[in-house]
Amino acid sequence: xxxxxxxxxxxxxxxxxxxxxxxxxxxxxxxxxxxxxxxxxxxxxxxxxxxxxxxxxxxxxxxxxxxxxxxxxxxxxxxxxxxxxxxxxxxxxxxxxxxxxxxxxxxxxxxxxxxxxxxxxxxxxxxxxxxxxxxxxxxxxxxxxxxxxxxxxxxxxxxxx
Length: 161
Description:
elongated, lipopolysaccharide transport protein A fold, 161 residues
């Protein structure tokens, strides 16, 4: 009887370890010059050379707050967001990790080899790869540059919508 219970416990631990494997790979790697965990708010407070890496997505900032429970990031001071061929810079960012969405402010620039878009603010969805840029928008494609109040850009299809 004890042997069966022991085998059941070992099997349970093994199943838990196997199911935790993929989730563990999705955990962010976070570095900063100074890191403080605020137990009252449940937020990591990061300052200086902040780097948050989740899979191939990397966010850098001068300072940030991170909630690992809700997968939210509030960052400021020289924001960069990079993933594959996507490169965005901004003054500030709010990331809804569970929705794969980022709201950028303080002057935003999307840079790709064939297009550059600057704007006051932007909403970007990492799942759909669609960004909506608003306020003083400037688009440069090749030698053509034009202005607009708002543009939506699809990175997958390289088209303005």
